[in-house]
Amino acid sequence: MNYIEHLEAHCGEITGHLEIEELQEQAIQLLQFQNAPCANAITMTSLGLLRHPLQFENGAIVHQEVMLSVMQQDAESDLIELVYRLTLEAWKTGHAYDLGEYLPMPDGLLSKYGFAALYVTTPFYFEESFQVHKGDAAFGEPETVLPVWFVPIFASEVAYIEQYGTEEFNEMLHETEMQLLNLKRHPLVGEEAIEALNAKRQLLVLECE
C-alpha cells in the first residue's frame, strides 16, 4: 500500500487536489477529503513531503506529511493556506514537527475564531492504523511515514501547556469526541480553571510539607 492508498483507506475518496507552483516543483501537492474523520468534516493534507527527509533537534531523521481537519466548510481557504505554509516551512527548513510543540497562529488566518496557536499531535480522531504508514518501496517511499495533525488552540490552552506540560494536555485532548474539529468550540480550559488548578496544587504542596 502506498501513501495515497493509505490516505484513501482512512479518509475516503479524494475530493479535491491543489497544485501550488512552489510546492509542485518539489513534487508536493495538497489533497482534500470530505467527511473525514467524521460526517461534515473537511481534511486537508500535504502529499509528497514524505520524500523530503526532516530532522528533529536531536538529529533524528523522519518523514512526515502535515494535515488539518475542521467542521467549518467556509474555512477551506484558510485551511489550504495553513497546510501550504506548514508544508513549505518543513521543506525549506528541513525541520521536523515535534509532537507536543505549538506554533503561533499566522496573522489573518482563522482570525475570527480567536485561536492563538497550532498544536502538533497525532491524528487520533482517525483509526489508530492511520498514525504510522509503512512506506511502499516500489513507489520509492521511505520505510516509515508519519502524518502530523495540527489542532488550533486558544491562549488559555497554551498557558495550560506551559504550566502543566504536554502529557496532561494530551490526556485532555484524547478525552474529547470530535469537538476539536469545531472552530467555534470553547476552550478546554479557561484562565479561571488554570488559577484554580494552581491553587489546588499549591495546597497539596503545603499539605505534603
Q: Top keywords for this entry?
A:
single chain, alpha+beta, 8-stranded mixed sheet, 5 helices, disordered C terminus
Counting structural domains, the number is: 1
Mean pLDDT: 92
**Which structural class do you get from the secondary structure elements?**
alpha+beta
> How many E strands?
10
Main beta-sheet annotation: 8 strands, mixed
Proportion in helices? 25-40%
Name the overall outline.
Answer: globular
Strand content: 15-25%
Show unreliable segments. Answer: 203-207
For the terminal residues, how far apart are their CA atoms?
A: 57 Å
Number of helices: 5
In N-to-C order, the SSE pattern is: HEHEEEEEHEEEEHH
Q: Report the C-alpha radius of gyration, rounded.
A: 18 Å
In short:
This protein is an alpha+beta fold and 209 residues long. It has five helices and ten strands.
Task: Give a structural overview.
This protein has helices at 3-11, 21-24, 76-93, 155-174, 191-208, and strands at residues 14-18, 29-34, 42-47, 54-55, 61-62, 64-70, 102-104, 117-121, 133-134, 144-153. The protein has one domain (3-208). Helices cover 33% and strands 23% of the residues. It is of the alpha+beta class and 209 residues long. Strands 1, 2, 3, 6, 7, 8, 9 and 10 form an eight-stranded mixed β-sheet that branches. A two-stranded antiparallel ribbon has the order 4-5. It has five helices and ten strands.
